[in-house]
Design a protein that fits this description.
Layout lengths: L1 E7 L2 E8 L2 E4 H4 L6 H6 L3 H6 L1 H13 L6 E3 L4 E3 L6 E4 L5 H5 L12 E4 L3 E2 L4 E4 L7 E2 L2 E7 L15 E8 L2 E2 H4 E3 L5 E3 L1 H5 L5 E9 L10 E6 L2 E7 L7 H8 L10 E3 L36 E6 L3 E9 L1
Parallel strand pairs: 6-19, 8-16, 9-21
Antiparallel strand pairs: 1-2, 1-5, 1-16, 2-3, 3-4, 6-7, 10-13, 11-12, 11-19, 12-16, 14-15, 17-18, 17-20, 20-21
Length: 316
Amino acid sequence: MRFVRYERNGALRLGALDGDGVVDLLDAAPLGTAPALLAAFADMTRLVASGAAGLRVAAQAAKQAPAAARTPLAKTRLQAPLAPSLILCSGENYWDHREEKPEVTRKDPEFFLKTGLGVIGPGDDILLDPAVTKKLDYETELLIVIGKPGRHIPAARAHQHIWGYTVMNDVTARDRQVMLRPDGSSVYNLGPGKNFDTCAPIGPALVSADEVPDPQSLRLRTTVNGELRQSNSTAKMIWTCAQLVEFFSTFVTLQPGVVISTGTPGGTAWGSDAELGGKKPMRKDVVTAGGYLRPGDEVVCEIEGIGRLVNRVVAG
């Protein structure tokens, strides 16, 4: 199933996508629904934590929803499908992205955090604040949503802990992230480079894992004003979704609603920026090697079977 959060009369509501409409879960809840599940139909993290029981009752609600519980999707103002307090992020997880930027030797996934204060939803504006950056970059990424708590989760059992997936644009301030030394080597400052207002567009929907038979075979693409900038497949990840769950659960107990970003492929504006060490623009017959984002740009992050996330850049 596909779940969204949307505005209705100034309040946030949870809905299930059904064709070209949104079914309000509370309005459509079957008679006799347990109080715990009713509470889950009002809070996305609780819905995720409710697991198979929540999905089963949500499916029943969507199937028998009365007309009054349905709203045309075109008339619905979607919000970010969930509001994580922070995002566990893995960088450098596609070979072509590694090759387009300054070399870093590592044997484990890159590990950094993004603040939930930067989360925005589909259709929201990405702010380009010149006090923060003059080199604003895009990164389409598959976002894992944890549904079952666990620590030291082996990759072979990671699927038991993954509730579903969504799309994230890991918006990045490259001139904050990358500092070049006089000798040509670079230092990464992922804190300021990855954390600022509107740095984490997410959405449009959370897709339950049962609709994604193989998360390692999804096409991924980014367009800016219709130009194809990134085009790859999750099959090209260095560390799979399951391996990333294993890695991050080594350090912290993963709880329902925790999200893990899985990295971006090559084709970023950084790859064409020699000033910051970019060294391998993508082949022009594959994508258009473009520059950094500017006010007025429309950024589309799309992952096959997951969704299409659209945001516009504005001066901030």
